[in-house]
Amino acid sequence: MERNYGALFCREEDGKYSVFLLDYDMATGGSNLEEARSMAKELLELAFETYGKRNPKNIDDVNKNELYFERTGEYLQDEELGNSHIELLW
């Protein structure tokens, strides 16, 4: 069975990205989308080594705003929500 792990990518006002893993309470970032993807993949590998592989969430069932709130204590504003997306990492 193939596992598909995802992450929430949020573009910040300064153009940098914050990234939140869907299945682990871990976050990273990057100065651009390419760097953020690379950092997220490295972080996911670290999560596997540290916590083991979990059953991944179905990305279609993830509410971006609720996940962001769980991790930051804040909700995304409309523009921020529009500047965020979920991607599969592996």
Distance between the amino and carboxyl termini: 13 Å
The Rg value, from CA coordinates, equals: 12 Å
* Estimated structural class: alpha+beta
Percent of residues in helices = 25-40%
What order do the helices and strands follow? EEEHHHE
**Main beta sheet: strand number and arrangement?**
4 strands, antiparallel
Shape: globular
How many β-strand runs?
A: 4
Give an overview in words.
With about 90 residues, the protein is an alpha+beta fold. The radius of gyration is 12 Å and the shape is globular. A 4-stranded antiparallel beta sheet has the order 3-2-1-4, sandwiched between helices. A hairpin with a 5-residue loop joins strand 1 (about 5-10) and strand 2 (about 15-20). It has helices spanning about 35-50, 65-70, 80, and strands at about 5-10, 15-20, 25-30, 85-90.
